[in-house]
Design a protein that fits this description.
The chain is mainly α and 166 residues long. The protein has helices at 3-10, 18-48, 54-81, 90-96, 108-136, 139-165, and strands at 12-13, 16-17. The chain has a two-stranded antiparallel sheet with strand order 1-2. Strand 1 (12-13) and strand 2 (16-17) form a beta hairpin. Helix 2 (18-48) packs antiparallel against helix 3, helix 2 packs across helix 4 (90-96) and helix 2 runs antiparallel to helix 5 (108-136). It is elongated and about 55 Å long. The protein starts with a helix and ends with a helix.
């Protein structure tokens, strides 16, 4: 019997079978990869922002990357709850991520616009995760994703409001 078959046959955690959680884990890994690339961009923007908005954006990027760092850990641990391991190389995350790295220097407004683009990708990925969780009846993952979504929507509003003033 193959290793996958053994896992499918013997796996049963939290009332779900291995197959029932497959879509959730795929969505969690997708979201994790998106957050990891997003995190890297936030760190880069934090280090490289310049100009009259330096102090404000430097601080906001730090607030954001600290929260994202925590969310990355929560997502990886949620994957482990299902008896699997999250993607673990940068190469894997970059390949899976729908968020793209940026090259070159950006002015502050362009940095914020990039973050807003990332927020849109994360929003779609969170909705996909919520759908997968609801389809399986996994209220814990659904609640986790909803909490992330609520915060993301608030931060999207705040960065959008800031971008209109610049």
């Amino acid at each position: 019997m193959s290793e996958t078959m053994k896992k499918q046959k013997s796996y049963k955690k939290l009332g779900f079978t291995y197959l029932e959680t497959a879509e959730i884990v795929v969505s969690l890994n997708q979201l994790l990869s998106n957050y990891i690339v997003h995190y890297h961009k936030l760190r880069m923007f934090h280090w490289n922002v310049e100009g009259g908005d330096f102090f404000e954006l430097h601080e906001q990027f730090e607030i954001e990357y600290n929260e994202v760092k925590s969310q990355i850990d929560i997502l990886a641990e949620r994957i482990r709850v299902f008896g699997l391991k999250p993607k673990n190389t940068l190469k894997q995350h970059i390949a899976l991520s729908q968020i793209e790295e940026v090259e070159g220097e950006l002015i502050p407004i362009a940095m914020v616009q990039e973050i807003l683009k990332d927020f849109n990708v994360l929003h779609r990925a969170l909705l996909d995760l919520i759908d997968a969780a609801l389809n399986t009846g996994d209220s814990a993952t659904e609640e986790l994703a909803t909490e992330f979504l609520r915060r993301l929507e608030k931060r999207h509003w705040m960065f959008t409001a800031w971008s209109k003033s610049s």
